[in-house]
Write a structure and sequence with these properties.
One of its GO terms (molecular function) is 3'-5' DNA helicase activity. InterPro entries: P-loop_NTPase (IPR027417), PriA (IPR005259), PriA_3primeBD (IPR041222), PriA_3primeBD_sf (IPR042115). The chain is of the alpha/beta class and about 600 residues long. The strands form six sheets. It has a seven-stranded parallel β-sheet, sandwiched between helices. The longest helix is centred in the last third of the chain and has 18 residues, at about 570-585. The chain is globular.
Length: about 600
């Protein structure tokens, strides 16, 4: 008989809704580990892990599992020196761990599917997470061609609640051994999982907005360790977290030779401020001559992609001379210009009275975005005989025909062109690079690579023009097509400045008095740094309230807590304990605690 430390009065169980065991010991253990890592509650994580019950779906039989498929051939994995060996290891039942920097082009869904098929051939299960339904559909189609129907399911919101629950039950019962899904599938109860994979871990959709806001990458890392599964982190770009996995030796790099990269990638050309200053046409039309040439030449051979950043980006301050972001001398947080004109740190709140650039000694700051957001309209007027298609938040295109046309898209909504785009134009580089975010450079490069990878290779005449300074690190990485090198340099810089993921951080947000009481009560690890608190900007009028925004009429503050490497678990435990004590004693309002907040300035 089980025992409990609880000494209060227990309530009787009045009704058992279903005999279906949906929370297995393995899934419960994973939920506990995620709750501890993110300073959350077990109940919140279980709610993320187990979908809402649908009685009708529960009554259906899931059938018996099909026998393992045959081992797939290496296919386009041959382009990577370690690719065939990685697949062979999965097929043998080993647990290889790799960070895969994929070559540009349309082959990556098939390559990810082959890794899953190799794992299934060993008699084990496989789980792959994609950032959105479009990407999941591409991998779904590729895996279906390799292993046939009935061996895998897709878990995403597109299926609807009842169908999604039916598929989830098929996985939980062991009838299906492979899952392709979006963020919510990170807890999918795959039996004897041999591979957990995530594509494009830098995409913000992999971070769950619901408490305790876990990141799918971290959940899969936990599963790889506790369930002894292989691990594959793939993408066209490379995050600093991925670079850290390689640097520590936890995972091996899975990359192509430079000759293969140069052959597959398009030619990338840059247009910076100096080029625009010398270009009379650019000053008049707000689009450089080189950009017009790339578009005009590309339309002779096929569709041309035009990427325009979404509206609403707030530029961060940077040195006018060298473009180095302006940072606080005390804690290295981002400097912000307030209404009165004074500079203050966005992290610790200290005023910066006499700023000087640490790189070049410059004293002038810049926040202006180079380029224009209305250039898509100008392109349409300049090429009246060419059809113009748009793809964005309200209407996302999956594919476009391989005929001459202009395709104007926001980042992440770029459709795939049949045969690839002849050219691409990446506009308003400063709109991405000037965001008040520690990941601004990494995110700009990721979005550029996503678009440029849809363009034909250099040998086929594919060309990309990016409107950004050629001297900037992300732009140089795009020109060289070297996302892994960019991530390694970013990681080294963050280690020097004490930024995540080298250090660990948590944000504590709420009413000023509640934040102060929470931090005073928490037994933080030795050497913990408290940065701030600083006011949380109120949401703009008319914009829907997002997680982390203060309620209407309330003024919130946010403090950051930074600890040394190895103290992340202690930090999460301290904040979780302090939060629980406040709730039990009913002292003030609850505060929002987030471990590894993605929106650091």
């Amino acid at each position: 008989m089980a025992e409990s430390e609880f000494r209060g009065v227990l309530a009787p169980i009045a009704q058992v809704l279903s005999p279906e065991p949906v929370l297995t010991p393995e899934l419960l253990g994973l939920c506990r580990a995620v709750a501890d890592r993110y300073a959350g509650t077990l109940a919140d994580v279980v709610q993320l892990a187990v979908p809402p019950r649908r009685a009708k779906a529960e009554g259906r039989e899931s059938g018996a599992p099909l026998p393992p498929n045959a081992m797939p051939e290496a296919g386009s994995w041959e382009r990577y020196p370690a690719g065939p060996g990685f697949l062979a290891a999965l097929g043998r039942g080993d647990v290889p761990r790799a960070v895969w920097t994929a070559l540009p082009g349309p082959q990556w869904p098939e390559e990810l599917a082959r890794a899953m098929a190799a794992t299934l051939a060993s008699g084990r299960g496989a789980l792959a997470l994609l950032p959105d339904g479009r990407a999941a559909a591409r991998v779904d189609a590729a895996l279906g061609e390799l292993i046939g129907e009935g061996r895998h399911v897709v878990l995403s919101a597109d299926a609807g609640p009842e169908e999604r629950y039916r598929r989830w039950l098929a996985v939980s019962r062991g009838a299906v051994r492979a899952v392709i899904g979006t963020r919510a599938a990170m807890f999918a109860p795959v039996r004897d999982v041999g591979l957990v994979a995530i594509w494009d871990d830098g995409d913000g959709s992999h971070s769950d907005p619901h408490a305790p806001q876990p990141h799918a990458r971290e959940v899969l890392l936990q599963r790889a360790v506790t369930e002894r599964a292989g691990f594959l982190l793939g993408g066209l770009s490379c995050t600093v977290e991925a670079a850290q996995l390689v640097e520590t030796g936890w995972a091996r790099p899975l990359t192509a030779e430079r000759e293969q990269v140069r052959a597959a990638a398009p030619l990338v050309r840059t247009v910076g401020d100096a080029d625009e200053a010398r270009d009379a046409a650019a000053r008049a039309a707000r689009l450089p001559t080189l950009a017009w040439q790339v578009v005009r030449e590309g339309l002779k051979h096929g569709p041309v992609l035009v990427q325009v950043p979404r509206r609403g980006y707030v530029p961060r301050l940077a040195c006018e001379r060298c473009r180095e972001p302006a940072r606080c001398r005390a804690c290295a947080g981002p400097l912000e210009a307030r209404d009165a004109g004074e500079l203050r740190c966005g992290w610790c709140g200290r005023e910066e009275g006499d700023w000087r650039c640490g790189e070049c000694g410059g004293v002038r700051l810049r926040a202006q975005i180079v380029g224009a957001r209305r250039t898509a309209e100008e392109l349409g007027r300049a090429f009246p005989a060419v059809p113009v298609r748009t793809s964005g938040r309200d209407h996302v295109l999956d594919t476009v025909p391989g005929v001459p046309s202009l395709v104007v898209s926001t980042p992440g909504a770029e459709p795939v062109a049949e045969g690839g785009y002849a050219a691409a134009l990446l506009l308003d580089g400063w709109a991405l690079l000037s965001r008040p975010d520690l990941r601004a450079g990494e995110e700009a490069l990721r979005r550029w690579l996503q678009a440029a990878a849809l363009v034909r290779g250099h040998a086929e005449g594919g060309t990309v023009a990016v409107i950004a300074e050629a001297t900037l690190r992300p732009v140089q990485a795009l020109v060289r097509w070297d996302p892994a090198g960019h991530a390694v340099r970013e990681l080294a810089e963050r280690a020097e400045l004490g930024f995540p993921p080298v250090s660990r951080m948590a944000s504590v947000t709420g009413r000023p008095e509640d934040v102060a009481e929470m931090l005073a009560a928490a037994e933080l690890p030795e050497g913990a740094e408290v940065l701030g608190p600083v006011p949380v900007p109120a949401p703009e009028a008319g914009r829907p309230r997002r997680p982390g925004d203060p309620p209407p009429g309330e003024e919130w503050e946010r403090a950051l807590v930074r600890v040394r490497p190895g103290q992340g678990a202690a930090l999460a435990a301290a904040l979780k304990t302090a939060q629980a004590a406040r709730l039990v004693k009913r002292e003030g309002e609850a505060v929002r605690v987030r471990i590894d907040p993605p929106d650091l300035g």
